[in-house]
């Protein structure tokens, strides 16, 4: 295992977070970095998720990088190809491509205490770096249920994030498992094409309307000519979403949003039995609020059957539900989400004393400001624990995390520190405060079982406060919260204030 490559900083992943981190490093005059990308192109989840109907449910003028405004968004909620193209453009515009090592999948990372470096083994050779930015993405590894008999199924079976390029739904009997954020987008896109569709719904989702408003060319030109107009639009969306965030923390206000969701459903679903099947029994917002104008009409279509009983078995040509329903199908599509709290990357990261991140976390991830982990020096995890959101753009949180990272790097440089990590006390303090703020929110008291909660019942996924409160925390370095040292120092010394 001989390192063949060296860079001061390694960024893993070239999605939104990887690109944003790279740009900020460059802007600070740091050019000694490489980006390890397991795929053949930049773009992360927006490169991988190509299912029909794939779009963002946060407005593009907010769901984009603050330093790379795009006046040409053609829709309020852009579709996947446009977001993917935006990320490709950013990588070119900021001259990042030469930094990317494509088809380099990280297999293992080990912290070397003696040299104060990370050893990073990839599918195409080994690397050494002082600093690692883990921009692996929070939703990049699909979760597929381990269904009895799935390996005997003769047709196509795939996850929504691995949509086969040549998949032809026309005239087929399709089965969809899951009714989450992705499924509610591809179900309406497929429904008119297919012969029949059987949707296996475990828990119904609350779905509010989402007008697919186009942004007129005139408006795009105005944004281009007068950038402050675009900034004002972005700010308007940001404020509106932060106001909505207040209701997530005070579930009694969620009644207004529930009304909007019910009227969205009642507009399209006239059958009382189907209405009952599709009406959730938990407080809206407890699981991600979904947005679609076309989901309910598709679910009401005569070629769609909704089964509310769990799937127990798959045979060569059918799916069998717990209530005995058997649906003959040609293809199975899993809209079953991603591995969130048992994140695969934690299995291959080994910190101080050889401790594995997955063992330290034990399925309940904890980090200081969601970004750094005690015992794992010089590692910055983007979209780490408690940085997810239920109400607005995660790109804002990613940029706040990067702000913290840049401040820490500057602090290291100023104080001639080679190695830094948060103290365990600081990390515990952050986690405790976050948990306290989580109490009473719709995510913990909404009466649902969501992927935000880990196996201990703790919400280790979301940030419970406003995004500006996180940004304020991340915008400064509490030097007392970090432990720093020089690589050659024999004992650790607290970083100077
Ligand atoms: O996954 P999900 P997704 N048997 O977790 C069901 C982001 N996203 O891929 O609710 C049967 O939302 C599960 O049922 P239940 C966004 O953050 C963003 O759709 O657990 N069913 C649920 O219905 C989103 O939250 C955009 O009971 C099973 C579904 O599968 C995240 O990605 C667009 C099952 C999973 O829903 C994930 O979305 C799309 C089983 N064994 C996605 N296991 C934007 O626009 C799971 N389910 C930004």
Q: What's the total helix number? A: 14
* Shape, per Cα inertia axes: globular
List each distinct ligand once: 3-acetylpyridine adenine dinucleotide
| Mean pLDDT across residues | 95
- Using the CA coordinates, give the radius of gyration: 23 Å
Task: Report the major sheet.
Answer: 8 strands, mixed
Low-confidence stretches: none
Beta-strand portion reads 15-25%
Please give the alpha-carbon distance between the first and last residues.
39 Å
What does this structure look like?
The protein is α/β, with parallel strands linked by helices and 497 residues long. Helices cover 30% and strands 18% of the residues. The chain has helices at residues 16-27, 45-48, 80-93, 183-190, 217-225, 227-249, 254-268, 272-278, 295-299, 357-361, 394-414, 424-438, 442-445, 467-474, and strands at residues 5-12, 33-36, 100-101, 106-112, 117-122, 125-134, 156-159, 173-177, 196-200, 207-208, 290-291, 304-307, 311-314, 318-321, 326-328, 331-334, 349-350, 379-381, 419-422, 482-485, 493-494. Strands 1, 2, 3, 4, 5, 6, 17 and 18 form an eight-stranded mixed sheet that branches. Helix 1 (16-27) links the parallel strand 1 and strand 2 (33-36). It is globular. The two termini are 39 Å apart. Bound molecules: 3-acetylpyridine adenine dinucleotide. The site of 3-acetylpyridine adenine dinucleotide has 24 residues, from loops. 3-acetylpyridine adenine dinucleotide is lined by residues 56-58, 139, 145, 160, 177-183, 200, 202-203, 288, 310-311, 335-338, 451.
């Amino acid at each position: 295992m001989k390192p063949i490559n060296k860079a001061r900083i390694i960024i893993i992943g070239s999605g939104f977070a990887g690109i944003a981190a790279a740009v900020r490093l460059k802007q600070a005059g740091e050019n000694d970095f490489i980006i390890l990308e397991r795929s053949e192109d930049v773009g992360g989840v927006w490169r991988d998720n190509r299912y029909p109907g794939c779009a963002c449910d946060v407005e593009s003028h907010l769901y984009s990088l603050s330093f790379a405004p795009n006046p040409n968004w053609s829709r309020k909620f852009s579709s996947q190809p446009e977001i993917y193209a935006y990320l490709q453009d950013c990588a070119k515009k900021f001259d990042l491509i030469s930094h990317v090592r494509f088809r380099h999948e990280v297999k293992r990372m080990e912290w070397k205490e003696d040299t104060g470096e990370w050893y990073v083994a990839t599918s195409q050779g080994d690397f050494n770096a002082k600093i690692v930015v883990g921009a692996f993405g929070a939703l990049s590894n699909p979760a597929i249920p381990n269904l009895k008999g799935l390996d005997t199924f003769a047709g196509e079976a795939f996850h929504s994030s691995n949509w086969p390029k040549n998949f032809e739904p026309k005239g087929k009997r399709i089965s969809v498992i899951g009714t989450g954020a992705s499924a509610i987008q591809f179900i309406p896109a497929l429904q008119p094409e297919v012969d029949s569709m059987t949707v296996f719904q475990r828990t119904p989702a609350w779905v509010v309307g989402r007008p697919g408003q186009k942004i007129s060319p005139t408006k795009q030109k105005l944004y281009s000519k007068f950038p402050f107009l675009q900034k004002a639009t972005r700010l308007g969306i940001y404020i509106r979403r932060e106001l909505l965030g207040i209701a997530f923390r005070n579930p009694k206000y969620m009644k207004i949003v529930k009304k909007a969701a019910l009227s969205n459903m009642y507009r399209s679903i006239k059958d009382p039995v189907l209405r009952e099947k599709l009406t959730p029994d938990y407080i809206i917002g407890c699981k991600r609020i979904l947005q679609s104008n076309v989901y309910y009409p598709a679910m009401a279509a005569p070629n769609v059957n909704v089964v509310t009983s769990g799937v127990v078995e798959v045979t060569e040509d059918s799916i069998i539900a717990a209530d005995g329903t058997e649906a003959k199908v040609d293809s199975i599509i899993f809209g079953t989400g991603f591995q969130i709290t048992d994140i695969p990357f934690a299995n291959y990261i080994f910190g101080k004393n050889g401790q594995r991140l997955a063992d330290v976390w034990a399925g309940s991830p904890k980090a200081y400001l969601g970004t750094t982990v005690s015992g794992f020096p010089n590692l910055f995890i983007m979209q780490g624990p408690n940085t997810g959101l239920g109400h607005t753009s995660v790109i804002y949180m990613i940029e706040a995390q990067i702000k913290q990272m840049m401040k820490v790097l500057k602090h290291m440089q100023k104080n001639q520190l080679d190695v830094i990590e948060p103290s365990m006390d600081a990390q515990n303090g952050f986690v405790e405060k976050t948990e306290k703020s989580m109490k009473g929110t719709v995510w913990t008291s909404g009466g649902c079982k969501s992927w935000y909660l880990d196996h201990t019942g703790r919400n280790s996924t979301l940030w419970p406060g406003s995004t500006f409160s996180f940004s304020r925390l991340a915008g400064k370095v509490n030097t007392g919260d970090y432990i720093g040292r020089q690589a050659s120092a024999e004992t650790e010394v607290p970083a100077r204030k």
